[in-house]
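PT: before anyone asks, these are the final sequences, not the draft ones from last week. 414 residues across everything. Please model them as a single complex and drop the result in this thread when it's through.
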Amino acid sequence: MTKPADPESNLSTEEKIKRAATEVFAQKGFAATRTRDIAEAAGINLALLNYYFRSKQKLFDGIMLEKLQELFGRIAPIFTDTSTSLEKKIETFADSYIETLIKNPELPLFVLSEIRTHPESLTQIIQIGELFTTSSFAQQLKARRPEANPLHFIMCLLGMTVFPFIAKPLLKSKAAMDDASFNILMTERKQLIPMWMDSILQNPVQS
Amino acid sequence: MTKPADPESNLSTEEKIKRAATEVFAQKGFAATRTRDIAEAAGINLALLNYYFRSKQKLFDGIMLEKLQELFGRIAPIFTDTSTSLEKKIETFADSYIETLIKNPELPLFVLSEIRTHPESLTQIIQIGELFTTSSFAQQLKARRPEANPLHFIMCLLGMTVFPFIAKPLLKSKAAMDDASFNILMTERKQLIPMWMDSILQNPVQS
DNA sequence: GAAAAATTTAATCATTTGTTTAAATATTTT
DNA sequence: AAAATATTTAAACAAATGATTAAATTTTTC
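LR: through. Structure below.
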């Protein structure tokens, strides 16, 4: 006779709070989340939140830092690697990033929403702008297509990869799309996006 | 002797509140916006907000409806027009949509953020899923590339067009990008995106 | 120009919400 | 097992916040 085994109940109180907070923050955002929502979702007494994390803001800051790492930490090593080709970088990025986003589909919208509200404090932490202009990836793009700003192609790659996860709620209206078929589509894109990027990068402007 | 002429001061109180609210809501989101923020930004007494709009929620609902119209109302006529070619639709969309977004860069992130928090009520209003599966545009994509889900190409088009505006805050970190050069880049994309979409749609899978 | 209606203001209310407190309970140390 | 420490709980606090009220002022109507 195995127990129903709620996997959450074994966790430490601190971990229960953090996981519940991560979920509620991601769904509602910082401002719309009440500490009581978190306490209820975690199944703990309200005061324990402050006992373990001091304040709602400090709890959020820790979680946001982890999320920034999940969302941007993966890009930097790929884009700055000087030993890989342009094509290989695109391939690795699409594969690894879509895998991350399938496991964490609410990540981009959550992070970008909060950046909108705290532009200074958060954009300073991540310093992602550098990657877009001076990384090995940017240099390779510039070498391949000297006439265009490399940012154009980076935006194509990121847009094709990330945008579907941001727009996911739109697709789920009506019976248009369920989670399973969405994930199948996204998995297909792991191979499709590198091919599309090749097409975009190879075809010079025909004017 | 001409007056300093604050253009806002001539507006009706109702209009002043609505414009201030639109700005503050777009920047901070519904939950993080206090009615006092709006009153201050509008330069009016707090009670006037409720006098003209009954509640913060009703004020927000009206504004959100307008924003949904701005963001999605433009897509439908283009995608459903049976008299235009696939290429023409893409061209028209990129041109018209980028124009809209340059004038209203915070629109996509604002709308998508709020949809995340109210998935049911808002996705029902817009019914955008239909456009992606049954519109003339979707049919033309299916005819051109029968082996792939048309959604793939729609996500490419939307991703390449909309994503830069969602990721704009990331670019503005450090001195990487200012508003003027961002807008120049986006204007370039009006022509580039149709070319890129052609490349993507013409090149069949080479396996 | 007086009466009526609409608008604006200052003050206040009731609730929500993040946080704290002090007591109770559980765990660890000696 | 007693003492010390850590954790948990219920209750309460203080500030913030959406909304209302009643009086004052302005505008419109007759």
